[in-house]
Design goal:
By secondary structure, the protein is mainly alpha-helical. Helix content is about 70%, strand content about 5%. Strands 1-2 form a two-stranded antiparallel sheet. The radius of gyration is 23 Å and the shape is elongated. The two termini are about 35 Å apart.
Length: about 290
């Protein structure tokens, strides 16, 4: 009878005949899904508490994301002012939106403890950045991409200095993004329990990886930073001629984008060094599991 009611409710939901939120019958034990949501919220609170130790990261996240948006808007304004449409600009405008959304969603996942899922988006963010730089440098490739041709990562690495330099990082992100065993360390740990011995503890939903959470957050910031660094190097003259180099609300005056971004790079590098010096996640996880298991 319980299962009959369950499937009847599902059918009504699918047909649009049930307008109240679904609640399992009282006879049914609490679902794993609901428990995972509850535990993930607890993990999220601890992660947010750790992120507060790095206030500069939240600050930079909001500002660099805004600068990525502004970069695309400047190209739109440039097109309006010049009455000229350049294919590389169109490709960069689309890339900026993808990069922003990857980074935005990545931070949301990090705050929920879904670090491996955030890594998948981090790979996408770096691919988007490296490809966007290639568009800035090579309009012919932008033209092919806009026509629907797939630009293989290998081609991007061969033709882009930045992509070639970060080859090892990209390869690691690829391994983690696919269901390889190496990726299991981002959702599974070995724990010793008295009377049982060593056993795997698998996280369903958010996992508590405080060091990884900070490190991945910094890498997302680097993906946006590198995009901006290339953008203001390549487009500087075009934007200056059209009086679009600075927008209202951005830093201006005697400051240059080169000086400004140099300062941002220093903050990011220091934050990465600080995150690398944090205690191993294995220690933090063991302490966390001892309290909940």
């Amino acid at each position: 009878m319980v299962f009959t009611n369950f499937f009847l409710r599902i059918k009504r939901l699918i047909r649009g005949k049930c307008f109240v939120s679904f609640k399992p019958p009282e006879q049914v034990q609490e679902t794993v899904w609901l428990k995972v949501e509850e535990e993930t919220e607890k993990v999220s609170k601890k992660i947010l508490s750790n992120l507060e130790r790095f206030p500069e990261l939240e600050f930079l996240y909001s500002h660099l994301g805004s600068f990525v948006f502004n970069a695309s808007q400047k190209l739109i304004d440039l097109k309006t002012k010049s009455k000229t449409t350049r294919l590389k600009d169109e490709a960069v405008i689309l890339s900026a939106a993808r990069l922003f959304n990857d980074s935005f969603a990545g931070l949301k996942l990090i705050k929920q403890g879904l670090v491996l899922q955030a890594v998948v988006l981090l790979r996408s963010a770096f691919e988007t950045t490296t490809q966007a730089i290639l568009f800035m440098e090579n309009e012919e490739i932008a033209k092919k991409w806009l026509a629907g041709k797939e630009i293989r990562p290998k081609e991007v690495r061969e033709k882009s200095f930045f992509a070639g330099k970060e080859k090892k990082l990209y390869e690691r992100l690829c391994k983690l993004s696919h269901p390889n065993f190496i990726a299991s360390s981002y959702y599974s740990v070995t724990k010793y329990k008295k009377g049982i011995g060593f056993a795997a503890a698998n996280f369903y939903g958010g996992g508590y990886f405080p060091k990884l959470a900070i490190q991945i957050t910094v890498q997302f910031l680097f993906a946006q930073f590198v995009f901006l660094e290339a953008f203001y190097t390549i487009y500087k003259d075009d934007l200056e001629k059209s009086e679009l180099l600075w927008k209202t609300g951005e830093v201006e005056g005697s400051f240059t984008w080169e000086r400004f971004l140099k300062g941002i790079r220093k903050i990011l590098t220091d934050s990465l060094d600080k995150s690398n010096s944090l205690p191993s996640d294995s220690i933090e996880i063991a302490d966390y599991l001892d309290k909940i298991v």
